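Thread: "does anyone have the structure for this chain?"

Original post by V.I.:
We have the sequence but no experimental structure in hand. Need at least a predicted one for the grant figures.
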Amino acid sequence: MMRRDVFQAIADPTRRNIIGLIANQPMNLNTIAEEFDISRPAISKHIKILTECGLIVIRQEGRERYCEAKLDKLNEVSAWADQYRKFWTNKLDALDIFLKQDSIHKTNIENEQSSD
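Reply from O.Q.:
Generated one for you, tokens below.
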């Protein structure tokens, strides 16, 4: 079976919401399911995908199954997004420099014309 990646997991808003729910504390499956207006089997499918990509771990405590977030896998998403953040930051910095230089240039031309 092919392992899913973290990008597939966060592509769905329900899965992102599940991650948000359990980010600070583990929750059992029933507690998670109660937070959504979808069927328990649908929640189970989302949990399965999150488990397959390594964003959550399910541990058994007695009769209960608890979902625990493993958010270090989100570093992969952060690293991917960071390259684009750096790219656009550089582009916007260059645009800022250009606009400032253009403004100075226009001011100098206006000053020259007004002194004539």
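V.I.: this helps a lot. DSSP finds five helices and three strands in the chain.
O.Q.: and The mean pLDDT is 91.
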